[in-house]
Each structure stands twice: as C-alpha cells, then as structure tokens.
Amino acid sequence: MKIDSDSTKVSPAIGRRKYNKEVGRNALHKSTSMGIKELKVSRRKVELSIESIKEELAKKRTNHILHLLLTVVTFGFWVVVWVAVSHFDVRGRITLKAELREKQLQLLSIDEAIDNSG
What CA–CA distance (Å, rounded) separates 47 from 85? Predict the structure, then answer.
C-alpha cells in the first residue's frame, strides 16, 4: 500500500508507527536530492508551518465557561450545542496534531540530510 506523505489519515492496516516511518523516509528521500541551500529554505518553510499549526491548536479550544453560562440561561437547552462544539473542536485538534507530527518528522529528516551533506 502506498502512503501519500501529504495525507493526515492513518490506514488501520499499516498502523501509526509504520506510517510515521514511511513519512519520514519519503521526506528524507526528497531532501537528499537537494543542495544545502534548498534544504535550509525547506527547513524554514517547515518551521513556519509548524508555528502556524501550533497557533491554530491554541485557538481551537472550547470556551466551557461561556457554554456553561449559556446552558444555565437557556435552562439546559444549550447543552446540545455545547456537546457538538466540543466534539468538532476535539476532532479538529486531532487533525492538527497529526499534521504537526508529520511536519516534525519532515523537520527531523531535513536536519539529518543537512548534517549528512555538511
């Protein structure tokens, strides 16, 4: 089974560890054919995307105090909305964490390629 390095989904057939190794191997293969200058530019791009993912993760939090107040004011009817919002925030955070892990693997493979070529 071929794994796309841009994909954030993990196939249950191969497992998470094998997927992470494959993503790292693909990034290393791409990075060994580049020069040091391109590797450093690529490393900076990956660092910037990691920073933006971390910022998104910080934003994707449910404001439970607000939802509690709205639940009290609406005599409990807001609980349905609260549960739905919490559910989708958690799913979004899981996706972002998977992207973050993938970018960190790419960063490690780029660092390894820089060390090997230098």
Answer: 30
| CB 48, CB 36: distance < 8 Å | no
**Which pLDDT belongs to residue 2?**
41
Quote the pTM value: 0.65
Query: What's the CA gap between 116 and 112, in Å, rounded?
Result: 6
> Cα separation of 31 and 54, whole Å?
24
Place of tokens 């090997």: 116
53 within 8 A of 101, measured Cβ to Cβ: no
Reading the block at residue 14, the tokens are 């191969």
Q: What letter does residue 6 receive in the DSSP assignment?
A: T
Helix axes 16-32, 79-117, angle to 10 degrees: 40
Q: How many residues does the chain have?
A: 118
Amino acid at 89: D
